[in-house]
């Protein structure tokens, strides 16, 4: 995990929401307002986008990533961010006493981390 976070830190750091999901977004006319900035911190836009997409499975991943990351998009960094978020999410659920997923999903996360490292 240390290698993943180090690789993501090599890109420009931005202010990240880190908990952007439908319950934390309100539309106000033509504007969109993000609420609940409790976890906000400087970090990787890639990681923040990966976290946001996990809360919005109905969004088209390619379109959303292209719209948010624009010219800075790197397929390699995107894969690293998805892998890092999956590991963080798994551990967060486990620590909260929730069932984070199946053993197959954990194996897939471990496999992705091994490839990304």
Salient structural properties:
117 residues; two-stranded antiparallel sheet; alpha+beta; 5 helices; 54% helix
Query: Compute the gyration radius: what is it?
Result: 15 Å
How large a portion of the residues is in β-strands, by DSSP E? 5-15%
The main pleated sheet reads as:
2 strands, antiparallel
Number of helices: 5
Query: Which structural class should the secondary elements be placed in?
Result: alpha+beta
Termini separation comes to: 8 Å
- Give the CA-based shape: globular
Q: How is the largest sheet built, in terms of strand order? A: 1-4
Uncertain stretches of 5 or more adjacent residues: none
Summarize the structure in words.
With 117 residues, the protein is of the alpha+beta class. The chain has one domain: Aminoglycoside 3'-phosphotransferase, Chain: A, domain 2, CATH 3.90.1200.10. The strands form 2 sheets. Strands 1-4 form a two-stranded antiparallel sheet.
Write a concise synopsis of the structure shown:
The chain has helices at 2-9, 45-55, 61-69, 75-95, 103-116, and strands at residues 13-16, 25-28, 31-34, 41-44. The chain is of the alpha+beta class and 117 residues long.
